[in-house]
């Protein structure tokens, strides 16, 4: 990993920033990109680098949603000390984010060896891209039915139960190719939550999940082979691109379904499978 070039660092930063919050699987895209750049996806330093540049995407989320984060934190701390404030929607939403962030942390830590090993296969990525697309279609279908019958639920209606269910579904995103945002947004749609609110919840839940992953890799992996300059370039590029991606996605989902992403995922999954079958790419 010490021979990682600056152009390669920029490319990985762009891929991370573009795909971290879109429901297309950042891990899957990074794995394919690493293979095309000639990097070993099984190298611990490569895994650490991709986790570290996620910090750029996290910073973008923190800055973009800073007012919301402060608002929810104030509501949560206020509710802890004042029972009258516990019925406020922001207090419930804050708890939903907290509770929803716990399952993926526990499962991710328990299965970290499997996630960093066998699941890094591009066959897994290709299959997950296609199979989870089916879930996304079902989520959109279910959401449309609930919208007709009961109306959409907004941010003020999000409960702790919603957070727990979305958090449990988020665990599937530990499989490369599923997509963390694809999993959480789909779960939100299944719950009847409107698409924008489900997307915002996905962003909120990304903060603890990605921060934990980045910090874990920082303290548990030998960083001596990482180029300091390349590392900061990747983080900075990921930050800029992720910030733009967040703004774009929120506008997109306000008037569009996830079906465009479904088509992209299926096509990409099939192309990866064909490349693997033809020997153009190796699975690991």
Structural category is mainly alpha
Uncertain runs: none
The helix content, as a percent range, equals over 70%
Assign an overall shape.
Answer: globular
Mean pLDDT: 88
Measured between the Cα atoms of the first and last residue, the distance is 16 Å
Main beta sheet = none
Please state the CA-atom Rg, rounded to the nearest Å.
19 Å
Descriptive overview:
With 284 residues, this protein is mainly alpha-helical. The protein has helices at residues 6-19, 26-36, 44-52, 54-64, 66-81, 89-110, 112-116, 122-149, 160-170, 180-190, 195-220, 228-255, 259-277. It has one domain. It has 13 helices and no strands. The radius of gyration is 19 Å and the shape is globular. The two termini are 16 Å apart. The model has no long low-confidence stretch (mean pLDDT 88).
Q: What is the structure about, briefly put?
A:
With 284 residues, the protein is mainly alpha-helical. Helix content is 74%, strand content 0%. Helix 1 runs parallel beside helix 12 (228-255), helix 4 (54-64) packs across helix 11 and helix 6 packs parallel to helix 9 (160-170).
Overview features:
single chain; 284 residues; mainly alpha; 13 helices; 0% strand
Strand and helix map with partners:
Blueprint: H1 6-19, H2 26-36, H3 44-52, H4 54-64, H5 66-81, H6 89-110, H7 112-116, H8 122-149, H9 160-170, H10 180-190, H11 195-220, H12 228-255, H13 259-277
Helix pairs in contact: 1-2, 1-12, 2-8, 3-11, 4-11, 4-12, 5-6, 6-9, 6-11, 8-10, 8-13, 9-10, 10-11, 11-12
